Amino acid sequence: MNKNVVELLNAQVNKEFFSAYLYLGISKYFTKENLPGFASWYRVQAQEEQEHAMKIYDYLLDNDEDVRLSQIAQVDVNFDSALEAAKDADKHEHYITGEIVKIMDAAVEAKDYSTQLFLDWFITEQAEEERNSKDMIAKIEMVGCDKKSLYLLDKEVGSRKS
Ligand code: OFO
């Protein structure tokens, strides 16, 4: 495989594990805020991120490339509100989309058609992730400071299955 593509895929393994770490941190924030539904939603998201990392991990190994398991950065999860946490997640997803696009650009440049096909799934997934995080922000904004509505929303988002 092209060296640059391999390098970027390796870096993405770390970024996906960092995403899992970030979502776990957000989940912890909601647990401490006594909002178990949100905590569960973000925990499911953390599991999905690990699956994303492992997809790339397997792809590299399947192509006889090495996988670098580099250090995962510490996550800062001191939020002032549910809205701030949701906005942080949304910002992160946009960043990840940009990183996936960079790998796709490198694969196109290297005429690496297999990796382009492989990354198609991630492009679709990122569109869904951005939609989900945008929806979450909209729901929290709708609820505003109304504690009763927040309680009901917590119940609703907690029904998300992995
Ligand atoms: Fe892996 O999609 Fe979110 O970050």
Instruction: State Rg.
Output: 17 Å
Distance between the termini: 33 Å
Q: What is the CATH class name?
A: Mainly Alpha
| Ligands | hydroxy diiron-OXO moiety
Q: SSE order, as H and E? A: HHHHH
Our count of helices gives: 5
Shape: elongated
**Name of the CATH homologous superfamily:** Ferritin, core subunit, four-helix bundle
Average pLDDT reading:
96
- What proportion of the residues form beta strands (DSSP E)? under 5%
Features:
single chain, 162 residues, mainly alpha, Ferritin, elongated, binds hydroxy diiron-OXO moiety
What's this entry about, in short?
By secondary structure, the protein is mainly alpha-helical. The chain contains 5 helices and no strands. The chain is elongated and about 55 Å long.
Descriptive report:
- By secondary structure, this protein is mainly alpha-helical.
- It has a single domain (3-157), classed as Ferritin (Up-down Bundle), CATH 1.20.1260.
- 78% of the residues lie in helices and 0% in strands.
- It has helices spanning 3-32, 36-62, 82-109, 113-143, 147-157.
- α1 (3-32) packs antiparallel against α2, α2 runs parallel beside α5 and α3 runs antiparallel to α4.
- The two termini are 33 Å apart.
- The structure holds hydroxy diiron-OXO moiety.
Structural topology:
Layout: H1 3-32, H2 36-62, H3 82-109, H4 113-143, H5 147-157
Helix pairs in contact: 1-2, 1-3, 2-5, 3-4
The chain binds hydroxy diiron-OXO moiety.
